[in-house]
Amino acid sequence: MRRLTFPAGFLWGVATSSHQNEGNNHNNDFWAWEQIPGHVADHSTSGLVADWWRSAEADFDRAADLGLNTLRLSVEWSRLEPQPGVWDSAAFDRYRVMLHGLHERGIRPMVTLHHFSNPVWLAERGGWANPAVVRHFERYVSHVAAELGDLVNVWGTINEPYIYAAMAYMLGDWPPGQRSLLQLAKVMRHQANAHAAAYHAIHQVQPGAQVGVVKHLAGFDPYRPLWPGDRGVAALMDALTNWRFLDAITSGRFKLPLGLGLRRNLIAQGTNDFIGVNYYGRSRLRLHWRDVPVPAPPDLAWPVPWVNREIYPRGLYRFLMKLRRYDRPVYITENGLADSTDLIRPGFLLAHLANVHHAIQDGADVRAYYHWTLVDNYEWTEGWTTRFGLFGLDTETQARTMRRSARLYREIIAANGITEEMVANHAPHIMAQVFDSADEPLPVEASEEDAA
Ligand code: IFM
């Protein structure tokens, strides 16, 4: 019987966020945004979501039952600092109870400090487009580290900086709804500075903490691999959205597009103890800058269920190999699928984990895998139209339904790996992908040279 065994001590987790789980976070900008008709696809508002503010512990029991040894959650800035410089001790107490609850269940928390939502007061002062955000974020982070640092050793500063900046300041789909490349560039610069300031602030309070960014990495490949135009667009998107931020916080240099020059940002140099990676799939691009619906790869026959993105497990392997150049441990801080039927998720989980395993075998230092997510989450402006949970959520009754992939994840965690039997039972069509893909030739763009 073939099996893929993960290193001893590998961390198995799920990832969550405050606004998407806690409920009644009415003092942040996203809550205000949801109330405006037309902003959310299904006209819903987040409301109680999974009711974690009152009863996260019931879901922590579910997490413990799956055998998780880590859980990623975020703290809500708007709860902890409801007015500038004013701290809500009851909110800190609630987080302390939650964090204790995780430890009591043998689950190590990883805490994200900014996961898309902002206090209303910050939004009113210009949000992330105002350079003052760096100072505000630093003060908030330093306070949180002082109050909660005895219970948290791993901190993610900002979740998906580029996604947030693009959705809120370039595409205008999220608050504050701006559409400006200039604002986008400003916000990205402030994010790098805020990340760096947070890194130093945490280390001042907690020298032994592990601090990193949670970076979304999206695959971009040319739709027509031999076309210079398509190759150029894919390479540009890859450089701007995937590597610019990581390069800045490693080398202290912002590379400008097309190798036009460098901007130094020394405060950001060396400000990552680990790299957090959120990976969901890839897009194949044509010169028009447009995502095109792509046919599913023939060997997997994955449907394309979500925002024109192709499910591409091999892409995770490719990123993990490229990330070796930073010489930092990698935590896969998110990977998951919107699949309310749960027909595809088991194969998705197995195929991605197999690629993580192959990358570890080939020298990637991957320490953790966090599946997005435990219980169906409120998906920002998609509302409840997408269901990412290992457990389904009935938003009327708060009832949870355990999905088949939750049972599969429990088996994987118990075995600390993947067995042939699991694949045969849950996704026999990907057997070869799981056990033989180490032999699959890498696409040109993921050559050894890239990884060096
Ligand atoms: O739900 C989001 C999360 O907030 C950030 N990463 C992607 C997830 C799925 O879209």
Structure characterization notes:
The protein has helices at 18-21, 29-34, 52-66, 77-80, 89-104, 120-124, 132-148, 161-170, 181-205, 228-251, 313-322, 345-361, 404-415, 420-426, 431-436, 448-451, and strands spanning 3-5, 11-15, 70-74, 108-114, 154-159, 210-222, 253-255, 262-264, 274-286, 290-291, 330-334, 366-371, 391-393, 400-402, 417-419. With 452 residues, the protein is α/β, with parallel strands linked by helices. It has a single domain (3-451), classed as Glycosidases (TIM Barrel, Alpha-Beta Barrel), CATH 3.20.20.80. The strands form 4 sheets. Strands 2-3-4-5-6-9-11-12 form an 8-stranded parallel barrel, surrounded by 6 helices. Strand 11, helix 12 and strand 12 form a beta-alpha-beta unit. The longest helix has 25 residues, at 181-205. It is globular. The two termini are 35 Å apart. 48% of the residues are buried. The model is unreliable at 441-452 (pLDDT under 50). The structure holds 5-hydroxymethyl-3,4-dihydroxypiperidine. Residues 17, 20, 160, 278, 334, 372, 377, 379, 388 line the site of 5-hydroxymethyl-3,4-dihydroxypiperidine (IFM). 5-hydroxymethyl-3,4-dihydroxypiperidine binds at residues 17, 20, 160, 278, 334, 372, 377, 379, 388.
